[in-house]
Amino acid sequence: MRTLDKRIAPNVKLAASLVARAPTLTLAYDARCKSRLAATLDTGEDVAVLLPRGTVLRDGDVLVADDGALVRIAAAPETVLLVRAADPLTLMRAAYHLGNRHTPVEIGDGYLKLEADPVLADMLRRLGTQVEETQVPFQPEAGAYGGGHKHGHDATFAEDYALAQQVFGEHHGHSHDHDHDHDHQHGSGCTHGHGHDHH
């Protein structure tokens, strides 16, 4: 079984003919967030994906196998909520409430997309949006300070927090220096409490 253990940086431009000939690995969002998984290429070949922790694969990414072969990543269609609103303010309000819940959201021109959830669908309808369940690829925002879905206890939290404080200090003329190390991580299915306020 081949191992896919390197991701080519998005800023590296590969010859279109090389990428076009590469087999495709089609994955849903949850699978694209895993750094280690067994998967099957669209050709039927089984492969192992072994990437650095915290890697979130995006549609169009290219991986390198241990034998040097290239593999293209494709975002699989999955059940999502497609959210629209009659006006931009209502859509922004919906995005605010989803962000306050740390919900991965794809933001597009006039729409939001999120993983299907009946409770969130109800909340969004109460906010005045139109919510439709549909099957399409899902590619949520990567996060303000890099990387994928972040939570206050991720391995990169200290770096992200330091960067956020640096940006805040540059704009407001002061800094906030103290350590926020945590020893555990959360996946997208984390359900235990986090002990922090949502404002």
From TrEMBL:
Biological process per Gene Ontology, one example term: protein-containing complex assembly
Pfam family for this entry, one: UreE_C
Principal place of residence: cytoplasm
Keyword annotations: Chaperone, Cytoplasm, Nickel, Nickel insertion
Region (Disordered): 171-199
Domain of life per record: Bacteria
Similarity field: Belongs to the UreE family.
Protein name: Urease accessory protein UreE
Organism: Burkholderia cenocepacia
Gene field: ureE
